[in-house]
Amino acid sequence: MPGPYIAGSLVTIASYATSPQNPISNPIDGFRDRTGTLADPNTVTVKYRKPDGSVTSITVPDVRIVKDGIGLYRTDVDTTGMAGQWTYEWLAPEGDPIQSIAANAFTTSPAPI
Length: 113
Fold this sequence. Notes:
Blueprint: E1 5-6, E2 10-14, E3 16-17, E4 28-29, E5 45-49, E6 55-59, E7 66-69, E8 72-78, E9 84-91, E10 104-109
């Protein structure tokens, strides 16, 4: 994920990554089953911690979460007024056969004016 961002940016966080070598048809990460095949968990949740320490949790079917494909989800985070480090994690509930996604982070810097 590129960055740092300026506080106030709308930052897209996803359960997967892409690159020229790994386009969306062959993403990096994403929810996967035990064989490594992309799969949808029974429940999809994203949690993110703002620089002030507060945590937001969003679970499908919340319309802020967009499904891009099997095992591939994203949402936009409004960083208005919050410079600093943001951390996030995409999760499947405990006991779900689909693997949860490891945490990731991005940084926002104060607006220049």
